[in-house]
Amino acid sequence: MTENNTFSKERLASKTVTLPRLNRLSPSLESTALKIMEESGELAQAIGKLRGLSGESQRMKEEEAMQMVARELVDVAQTAVTMMFVLEEQYGINLEAILKEHLEKLRYKGYCD
């Protein structure tokens, strides 16, 4: 295994990502849901380029494709965070409570400690 593919247990324990509330946007629940689908499609397309599933005759190099996958994944995450802001600000949803429930569910299912 290469050093890049070796992960310590501590490194896999948790990943914290902080993404900003975007300015100069007026997202709705519907527009944000559609944007998540668009970004998810772009993520799938990037993975397809890695695996030669995009219908193109030539595949991307793995390193280049993985960079593209990572960028598209961050776009999906940013859009999901934007939807969280919409839920909080427009619908009064307590996301802290939802996140706590989510972590409890993951622990109950044995997916994390």
TrEMBL record:
<dbReference type="GO" id="GO:0016787">
    <property type="term" value="F:hydrolase activity"/>
</dbReference>
<dbReference type="InterPro" id="IPR044548">
    <property type="entry name" value="AF0060_NTP-PPase_MazG-like"/>
</dbReference>
<dbReference type="Pfam" id="PF03819">
    <property type="entry name" value="MazG"/>
</dbReference>
<keyword id="KW-0378">Hydrolase</keyword>
<feature type="domain" description="NTP pyrophosphohydrolase MazG-like">
    <location>
        <begin position="29"/>
        <end position="107"/>
    </location>
</feature>
<protein>
    <submittedName>
        <fullName>MazG nucleotide pyrophosphohydrolase domain-containing protein</fullName>
    </submittedName>
</protein>
<dbReference type="InterPro" id="IPR004518">
    <property type="entry name" value="MazG-like_dom"/>
</dbReference>
